[in-house]
Amino acid sequence: MSAEHIIRHLQLLPHPEGGYYRETYRAVPTVATPEGHTRNVSTAIYYLLENEDKSHFHRIKSDELWFFHQGQALEIVLLTDGQMYRIVLGNDLAAGAVPQAVIPANTWFAAHLPTGVGHALVSCTVAPGFDFLDFELAERAALIHEFPHLTELVMQFT
Fold this sequence. Notes:
Layout: H1 3-9, E1 13-14, E2 20-26, E3 30-32, E4 38-40, E5 43-50, E6 54-60, E7 63-71, E8 74-80, E9 83-89, E10 100-103, E11 108-112, E12 119-127, E13 135-137, H2 140-146, H3 151-156
Antiparallel strand pairs: 1-2, 2-5, 3-4, 5-12, 6-11, 6-13, 7-10, 7-12, 8-9, 8-11
């Protein structure tokens, strides 16, 4: 199944960070955040990257879980504690891929297809639930200032 077919069939829309998405679930119960805001307990989306699409560096105020469904392996790049970490999300467990991954709250992260060819369909769940008010797209200069030793990587994903 082509990326175009999946985008059309699942009614995915362009995402501000890159790729395509559609919210599929928003829990009715709510919870108060440490900042005093109200958020749904949990949310879920479909998310698709194709070819050279990227999920640019961003962070949110909640934990996010990623679940691989189909297509090519997806590489998630995380910046935390002054270091860079990579997670390969996919089906090839023997090659080190994992079918699900956790991105801790307030962690800068990005994603792409390492080969730049094909597509990856994943789902992401966020708890407490996602709200665009909790979404921060990285500014290149600020991220380079925070991670000067990773300037090339920051340039690639901002």
